[in-house]
From TrEMBL, chains A, B:
Keywords: DNA-binding, Transcription, Transcription regulation. The keyword Zinc does not apply. PROSITE patterns: HTH_TETR_2. The lineage of its organism: Bacteria, Bacillati, Actinomycetota, Actinomycetes, Kitasatosporales. InterPro entries: Homeodomain-like_sf (IPR009057), HTH-type_TetR-like_transc_reg (IPR050109), HTH_TetR (IPR001647), Repressor_TetR_C (IPR004111), Tet_transcr_reg_TetR-rel_C_sf (IPR036271). GO terms for biological process: negative regulation of DNA-templated transcription. This is Transcriptional regulator.
DNA sequence: ACCTGAACACCGTTCAAGT
DNA sequence: ACCTGAACACCGTTCAAGT
């Protein structure tokens, strides 16, 4: 997102801290201790300054988070070799975005605050939209199809991250486990049938196979 | 989620406030002023009590939010007539969940804290999983397919809610608009091609048509 | 059993002043 | 131009005491 922060040509007092310092320290806190521990006060302390000094370099905490996401994406989104087959290219590009975000559990907080994603992801979006068009979709349908892929990907990450957080925080059996244990088979026959396998089944990572299904469905001529 | 809060048989001091009072007041604050304004202190004030009195009826704020989601779902998730055709039944049931959540913008905060959803949604899940099995998927594949539908649905809501919030908060052009305006057509030919139509295209509500594509893809025998 | 008051350990951000 | 200190207006939650 990084609105170019016009580097000042030393017209006044020399800056003691920079945007880069802030991002670097913020990255350290977030990766080492989690996004919850990132506060303006804590960051200022670690950087050896005061909370209000930060506000000369970032507009507010939300901008800081977006800056950190941008920094993370730039650092980790390296363009891979993509297959020549357009359908396969879509799957690989979407999976690349997915894997980067999935490896970054604090992303979820920012995802809902961010304008989708940084410029680093643009190349991947280009590949996906391009692949969809090569497969015969017109530009409008390609954009809509890309969005469906993005919704599926973002949803997978949000839900999985939430589930992981709950497992970490909670020792006692989840509410869902209780519900499934006492399921009335006459009212919910299908769910009762899979009740005892629900937890392991939903823990399986099926992102890619379902992504393929989604892409296949999007490319069907209906 | 509502762990049954064993109603006490007046063994000690009579309760001045109840779980129901708390939920009712919480619902009012959330619907009238948004989830951000719901604090334990504010809720206590509105209910005419003290913050700590609340902690005798709910474990913490997270439980309160889950209780409120549960309350909302129970109130609004009415079972509709579903079509006999299983494929169509899946689409209608998923759309019903989607529409209820989409009408409830504060849901997103809770979605990431909640064990998926309340018992009120279980009937819809049963219909979806049942429909998938009727269409020929074995139980395992049906559960996985249901999850893909849920990811897509949750993602759509999270991303759209975030986008709406940004539009509301921000007057200036979004970062994405700036990026698309200055897109290099030689590096991003496909995106450049749709750049000027990106905003209206992504604003279109295509949840149901893309859901159909997803369901079609999930039901393909591959 | 249920509620209260005071306190703990924090937040993000504004404002006015300093260098 | 950049930074500081103090203050504003809050948080969720714990603890010890009251009824």
């Amino acid at each position: 997102m990084s609105q170019p922060s016009a580097p000042r040509k030393t017209p006044g007092r020399p800056a003691r801290i920079s945007r880069e310092d802030i991002i670097e320290t913020g990255r350290r806190i977030v990766t080492e201790e989690g996004v919850d521990r990132l506060t303006m006060r804590r960051l200022a302390k670690d950087i050896g300054s005061t909370p209000m000094a930060l506000y000369h370099h970032v507009r507010d905490k939300e901008e800081l988070l977006v800056l950190l996401l941008d920094d993370y994406a730039t650092r980790t989104m390296h363009r891979p070799e993509l297959p020549a087959d357009p359908r396969e290219r879509i799957v690989v590009a979407a999976s690349a975005i997915h894997d980067v975000l999935a490896a970054c559990p604090w992303i979820v907080e920012v995802l809902t605050a961010d304008d989708l994603m940084s410029t680093s992801a643009l190349w991947f979006v280009e590949q996906i939209v391009g692949g969809l068009m090569e497969c015969g979709l017109n530009p409008e349908r390609a954009v809509h199809a890309y969005r469906a892929i993005w919704y599926y990907t973002a949803g997978e990450i949000v839900v999985r991250t939430a589930a992981a957080r709950r497992r970490a925080a909670d020792e006692r059996p989840t509410y869902r486990e209780q519900v499934f244990a006492g399921l009335d088979p006459s009212e919910y026959p299908r769910l009762a049938q899979v009740a005892d396998r629900w937890a392991p089944l939903t823990a399986e990572d099926t992102y890619v196979v379902q992504l393929r299904a989604l892409v296949d469905g999007l490319l069907l001529t209906r």
